[in-house]
Amino acid sequence: GGGAGRGVGGGGVDVEAAAWEAEEMVKALRGIDGVLDVRVVEDPAAQRTVWKIREDGSGLATRSVDGVLSWPGWEDAAVPPRNLGAYLRDFHRLLDQFGLKGVVYGHFGEGCLHVRLDFNLQSDDGVAHFRRFMAEAAKLVVAHGGTLSGEHGDGRARSEHLPTMYSDELIRAFGRFKAIWDPRGRLNPGVIVDPAGVADDLRMRHRWRTPRVELALREDGGELGRAVHRCVGVARCRTGSGGVMCPSYRATRDEKDSTRGRARVLQEMLLGETVTKGWKSPEVAEALDLCLSCKGCKIDCPVGVDMASYKSEYLYQRYKHRLRPASHYSMGWLPRLARIAAKAPRVVNWVASSKITSGLVKRMGGIAPQRRIPAFARRPFTEVFDQGLRQEPLPEKSVLLWPDTFTNYFAPAIGQAAVRVLRAAGFDVLLPSRPVCCGLTWLSTGQLKAARRKLRHALRTVAPVVSAGVPMLVLEPSCAALFRSDATELLPDDADARMLADNTYTLAELLAKFAPDWEVPKAKEGEQAALQVHCHQHAVMGAGPDAALLRATGAATTVLDAGCCGLAGNFGFERGHYEVSRKVAEQGVLPALAAQPPGTAVVADGFSCRTQFEQLAGIRSRHLAEVLAARLDLESTQAQRL
Ligand code: SF4
Ligand code: SF4
């Protein structure tokens, strides 16, 4: 069987009276057959969560449980509240009769129901079926003393059926009244007084194209059309704060730079009527250019529009067998270049930073001139790692530490800090037996075939160890997110990809799951920490364990909810993106950091976030591993003194 939730809002100025009313309601509801549980939600944060479900209702209802798309049309009928029960029963009978399904939500107290139904709008028969249903539903709601549109307007969806509700005389009166103000019929033609048929201009009748795609798009049956039509247009992506979605819109305030704007342009591209050149359409290039691939929409959009994936697919299709922008080589091939640079890091760093040569390097690499190229470490982490039990027979409590490119070649101290923490928590640390890369930078620049090759090689390297029961720790959040989520989009049939998705952890997750009794090193008295959650971590893993771990150290911890840092991997380094990258940071996270009490430790696991803070505001931030390792060092120094 299935279950459904229902929220009932109560309020009033008198808290005691409201509490009493709530209690009475709980008692009454508990007595009703079929009610499984009733809870009163008093905590404001929990109330916000409940309301978010309600606010996202229209988005959540866009597809039925079995994944079939649902559409508006009959989404706003209302009846007098006393008739609601009878109407609902008849309405469900009507749905059964027409073989339709939908989740009903909305304002039951007012007798107004929202619902999206799984009409088939892509065939002539389906559209005829839709028309018949609309006519019958109109008769039904009127028979129950109701109205076709309870809360919103009649518009094109319901004008044709207004005569079911109003007399001909009244409709004619509407027409005469409108003609006084609009004698030439220019305002909103085809609506209410001279209605067009409900199915006359259905966009879905022109079936979208189904180009072959390289990513699996598993949630959408491999169909880009279904994926981009997730967007229902409720515009949560046009908010100015909270969550991550959508940083580019927050920076430019231009619809085309919002998730919705991009989804619409891709929809048009697939329909081919106004955006006509397919993947080569300039409108598509323009709409996707400022997408940071932050994955914010993947989690913050109520229907999980995943624009970062669509952008990867676009970049793949657009540049397949063609010369790519320079940044796709300089930053897309970063892991490969980093391996070469590691042979002579001092020379490379000099060339990349010297006034004489850095301009040329940036020009050749498609890098924004305002950016400083991060310096390569003298020795990669994999070289300085004290080998310990590297690939020895597996001890009971081992962890495989993934040497991501950023930790390995730019910040080996983070890898060493992680080893220090892991050993203190009782783990033996293993490294992969050969150089590896998850393919992240190839994925984000749309070089999907190369990304798949890198990933497959990585999986074959680590799978034997992980399948023997050793969890894998990934310190860089975007690489962790790749294993947890993107890997199965790149290699949907690969058993190792699925296995790694289930066995890859962030540091905080790993410690919480495999070392729950470890005594976390304590923070100094009065220590404050501000946690910047990397966007990909926000979207895929969440940062609950990170915040819990920091709090367990005793540090007063604030999780910054100020959005993306604006750098987002290659995005902020690419020529032409600097201003938007900077603006994103200046509108969200930099003011949030500035508002922290002096001396607050800034914790940021993402290489991008740390680089952005440092380059734009001179703020030093540290990986969680470094914070914990520093405390361990402090504790052992203090112990030695005693
Ligand atoms: S992309 Fe924006 S408008 Fe579309 S469903 Fe998501 S939040 Fe709503
Ligand atoms: S990936 Fe980020 S920038 Fe791109 S559309 Fe989604 S939220 Fe906006």
UniProtKB/TrEMBL annotation:
<dbReference type="Pfam" id="PF02754">
    <property type="entry name" value="CCG"/>
</dbReference>
<keyword id="KW-0677">Repeat</keyword>
<dbReference type="InterPro" id="IPR004113">
    <property type="entry name" value="FAD-bd_oxidored_4_C"/>
</dbReference>
<dbReference type="InterPro" id="IPR004017">
    <property type="entry name" value="Cys_rich_dom"/>
</dbReference>
<keyword id="KW-0411">Iron-sulfur</keyword>
<keyword id="KW-0274">FAD</keyword>
<dbReference type="Pfam" id="PF02913">
    <property type="entry name" value="FAD-oxidase_C"/>
</dbReference>
<protein>
    <submittedName>
        <fullName>FAD-binding oxidoreductase</fullName>
    </submittedName>
</protein>
<dbReference type="GO" id="GO:0046872">
    <property type="term" value="F:metal ion binding"/>
</dbReference>
<feature type="domain" description="Cysteine-rich">
    <location>
        <begin position="408"/>
        <end position="462"/>
    </location>
</feature>
<keyword id="KW-0479">Metal-binding</keyword>
<feature type="domain" description="FAD-binding oxidoreductase/transferase type 4 C-terminal">
    <location>
        <begin position="14"/>
        <end position="191"/>
    </location>
</feature>
<keyword id="KW-0408">Iron</keyword>
<dbReference type="InterPro" id="IPR017896">
    <property type="entry name" value="4Fe4S_Fe-S-bd"/>
</dbReference>
<dbReference type="GO" id="GO:0016491">
    <property type="term" value="F:oxidoreductase activity"/>
</dbReference>
<keyword id="KW-0004">4Fe-4S</keyword>
<feature type="domain" description="4Fe-4S ferredoxin-type">
    <location>
        <begin position="228"/>
        <end position="305"/>
    </location>
</feature>
<dbReference type="GO" id="GO:0051539">
    <property type="term" value="F:4 iron, 4 sulfur cluster binding"/>
</dbReference>
<dbReference type="GO" id="GO:0050660">
    <property type="term" value="F:flavin adenine dinucleotide binding"/>
</dbReference>
<keyword id="KW-0285">Flavoprotein</keyword>
<dbReference type="Pfam" id="PF13183">
    <property type="entry name" value="Fer4_8"/>
</dbReference>
<dbReference type="InterPro" id="IPR016164">
    <property type="entry name" value="FAD-linked_Oxase-like_C"/>
</dbReference>
